[in-house]
What does this fold into?
Amino acid sequence: MRSHSAGTLIRPLIVAAVLAGFVLPEPSFPMARSRGSNDPVQQGDAGFKSGRGNGRLGGRVTDLEGNALAGIEVRLVFSQIDDLIYKDKSSKKGDFAFAGLGSGYWNLTVFGPGYEIYTASINVSQVSANPPVRVRLQKSAASSAGLAGDTASQADLDKGRQLLDERKFAEALPFLEAFLAKNPSIMGARLLVGDCRRELGRLDEAETDYGAVLDSAKTDPDLAAELAPRARLGLGDIKLKQGKEAEASEHFREAVRISPRDEALAYSVGEICYAAKRYDEAVRYFLAAEQLKPDWPDPILKLGYVYLAKNEIPGAIAKFEKFLAMERQGERAASVKAILESIRK
It folds into this structure.
């Protein structure tokens, strides 16, 4: 399990390509609008989507001293789609639980008033029991450091992050900007503001935000390790949108250099390159993610689609078969079986 602080969102782009009669899956932003408790929310066509199965996942939320925290919101989103989310709240003992999960990586988000938002990428299995997730929340920087120190300021951050997780960028931005105005030194918030502005097409402003994060990271080792790779990822996305491919590639290389053991980061760079149809680069980063996490089927599946887009059929078949050896059931498996049947004819 890899955990991240409030500023470490990863935002893959959206793309669709048609080849051999199949719609290739779109890189997806791993958050969605939610409703209900511990029930999945679905919207749109589920033809190539998965996320449902027999997997179970549970855990406990505590503070740093080990005291149980009740009433903390817990969200779980399948990494491959943007319209399926499970939602629960921690019990009096701090416990939460989810059922009906498919195999693969899920994005966990845990947040409560006055605490830093906790996120993690968790590999869920339907075959074996999944170990319980231990979530330890720390007091927010604003509360701990007395920065702006008021309840309204923290509420702005919590609300902005919630709306950002739901992809409501225009609604999230005013809350995040309000928090940042009172707490300008909190670079995690600056990164979130940059993410919002980037998604809204305000690229020059977002570039300034990411630049501020990188400037702060020069003198702060923690920021350099935690937030700088995400800022580089955002800058790479911006440069691709501006047609500056060489600069984009440099930002991606630097992001991975800073965090070379982060398979989720390598995967996200691969998705951005895949979206931009830079298939050779996508292969490089998906292969890196596969090597870092050999039991993760997602980069293997994406390699199959990239090789298919490159018309490298033997490579596509090899990756699809490897994926099916890891994930034999579910909608993703059914889609891959149909593709294999078609390209083998």
